[in-house]
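Tutorial handout. Part one gives the primary structure; part two gives the three-dimensional structure as tokens.
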Amino acid sequence: MADERDLTEAHEPEENGTAAQKTQSPPQEEEVEGQSRASAADDEERTAFPVVGIGASAGGLEAFKTFLEGVPPDSGIALVLVQHLSPNRESNLAEIAERHTALHVSEIEDGMEILPNRVYIIPPGMDLDLMGGRLHLMQPSDDGRPRLPIDHFFRSLADDQEERSICIILSGSGSDGTLGLKAIKEVGGMAMVQDPGTADYDGMPTSALETGLVDYVLPPEEMGQQLVRYVEHAFGPEEKRVSLPAAEPDTSLQKIFILLRREVGHDFSHYKKNTVRRRIERRMAVNQIRELDAYVRYLQENAEEVRHLFREILISVTSFFRDPEAFQALEEQVIPRLVREAGDDDIRVWVPGCATGEEAYSIAILLREEMERSSKNPEVRIFATDIDIEAIAIARTGVYPNGIAADVSPARLDRFFSREDHAFRVDKIVRDLIIFAEQNVFGDPPFSDIDLISCRNLLIYVDTELQEKVLSLFHYALRPDGFLFLGTSESIGQVDGLFETADKTQKIFRRKDDGTGARPPVTFPSLALAETAIEEGTRPDQGEDEDLKAVAERTLLDRYAPPSAIVDVSGQVVYFHGRTGQYLEPAPGEASLDVERLAREGLRLPLSTALRRAQSDDEPVRYRRIGVKTNGGERTIDLTVTPVKKPRHGERLFLVAFEDVTPEETGETEAATRGADDEGLRVEQLEQELRAKEERLQTTIEELETSNEELKSSNEELQSANEELQSTNEELETSQEELRSVNEELKTANANLEEKIAELQQANDDIKNMLSGTGVGTVFLDKELNVRRFTPDATEVLNLINGDVGRPISHVSSSLGDHDRLAEDARHVLDTLEPREREVRTASGDWYLLRVMPYRTRENVVEGVVMTFVNITSLKEAEDEVASLEETKREIEAARDYAQRIVETVREPLVILDADLSVVSANRAFYQTFEMEEESVEKASLFDLGEGEWDTPELRELLDEILPQETVLHDYEVKQDFRDVGERRILLNARELVGDGGEQRLILLAFTEVTEA
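Part two.
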């Protein structure tokens, strides 16, 4: 398409082509400003913060992590990562990114609202669009075109966020992201690219840099800070933001225009000021310069920045078949008519402001397709011009990134393009139709006799006067009924009297004519005037008399100048003047404009010699009285070849003039010759010999031409074979591209796996340290009961070394002796899935608790057995001590029972008192003798028994002395009247006893009744 160079920041038509040739009819400047303000309001409704699209492929994960670490959590921007991911694998990019940033990270869900200070990760196998501040996931189309998710999202980002859109391209192979970057620059966004020297794969960064539109080239660790600084200057608080006042004096802008003209040779002073100011603001934000005067000084000191500003204004955002509906209308309404009505004439197309050539190639493809459909083969010449030398160089190579697959159908890609490394090259059958050249449509002479001018979105934002001049120039250049193809936002404005509308919607116009063939005067330098001006170091006078002078010159040339032709250094005729048919005629066979093939018999040899001499000597060459055979006769002519140079560009051309020699001049010469002396006769003989040699030379030349024809035939066969090889090579390249795509996905998956492996390694180290720290010996067995892994503590029981991994457990010796039934236990657990637990003892006497359990995976699948050995030797020793104590206790209890039975057998009453003289126990004889109940006696004080009969001063004194003095009482007689049994005389014996543990002190009282009947 045209070099649609956007000079606006939001919804403004893009400029196409050259710096000095940007113009458009309406809209007026006031309307544009209103549209800009409305667009800005729409932006505020969508998002009030910039959105950063990040494209990455192979090797981009590490760069992305490093970049994230440099972005502060309060940056006020939203980050969206689009990476080439395999659709058949789950992605853990969100989890990985979370560990490298304090920003909130999430995998994108359909319809998710985009918010600042967040990171959004595209899920695998999806395309991503942004509309109205919301992210939408789309299934990729399955139309055979290469999938380019980064370009897809960048274009959507540019459409939705316009000047708030920012793109960053990280490591990756291929060219995905390049066309999307152009779209973002088109709407006034910013582009940042990873330094190729720091990228694992530099394909994507290098492809982006080749556009010449990148603002920053940085390593990943510096990108975050630079991004934040740019956002502060472009969208931050008012005190930091770059914003030129509307009333800024024009003098500052004029100084910038002067610097641009001085450095690049083009005048921007006719551009509408608001358009240029926005581009200047963008460059000031990139360089963090707030004052316009400071930026002017910066331009004065940095010529490179002047060129950057020039490129900023000349952003080439063209694409193949841009506005498909418009090109469809051109294909249906104009192209068939041009081919059908061509006849013997050639088809001439002019594409001013062609930029990188996509529009010119699109028209060439339409013409080639129509010629194949109609089986007609007229000569086609497409003149594609621009002032951007770098863009023209790209157009001439005809190599474009994979992203053009989004604009060109698969059928056309197969028919008119060949695959190269991550790119498409336009085939020769299309390239041969186009001549690319540097030209300023506002200053250089136009082409003439043009059938179609395609000037789409080139005429934008220059003053109305210049718009009218350019449209008048187009009218002059077109043939009667020639077509003018404008952009969908353009019109013919105030010069509608020169054109009539062919398609109002798609902006196709036809040249009007008054029937006389006259053309309105147009001011542009003629070829002769330009040559004179260059030679004399002056410019032709500008004024009303210039057109009359040009008409006079043309009239004089047509009437008095001899027939002539202008040829280039290769001998191709580029211009005919006068009636040259008597000297040049088309040769049989394939059509050619080679002047030597066109030369009639007798003229070819001197013409060829004269051209070579003129090229080598750079001086005019003249041959006199050459005999040229014409239809049924011969005429004598003088041949002159004069070197000339094309104005401005310095291209070497040669003017070939044919001057007839009159019969009178010939007769006088012959008479003088006949009257000459012998010397004259000798001259005549030499001339005859020379003619004979010329004939022999001609024969030789013809034989050489025959050989050349045979060589051409052989060459055609070789070319045919080469085409077959090329076809095979294209298939191989397609397969190679698929393999590269798969390889990129594998590399991305590998990076994810490496991250996961690192996590697993950390988890493995944690588990290893945990198992080692517990002191529990653990052995892992597989389904075949072979050792898979063991902990160091397991070697205390089993004689394991590292070389035993993979050996059956039955082959491993242990220190368990009779307890060694490990293989049997493991097989039982594997068969029954029931855990088994038992205590085992080593030969050294240590005890272990052996547990055997099934080894279950996360999916609850049994994959083996786990054995653990817990050392319980200390527990066993404690149990033995407890058992010993229990045995002692049982012995004591047995002794106590024995004593109790003895006590119960004794017939004398017995009572055991504690230190407080309370009854601990009494025997049966006591209860029977004194007729008391056990419940009322035990735990009661001795002195409270009965009616207090035992509470006597003598007895109290005696008992109080036994314990302190550890004395023994023998046969102390007590005579007492008991309520229930009457008066009794009893002999009392008392002794101190030691209770359990030697702590409790007791008194044993024995009563012997001496009462006589």
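Part three, for discussion. Confidence is low (pLDDT under 50) at residues 1-46, 515-547, 665-677. DSSP finds 29 helices and 37 strands in the chain.
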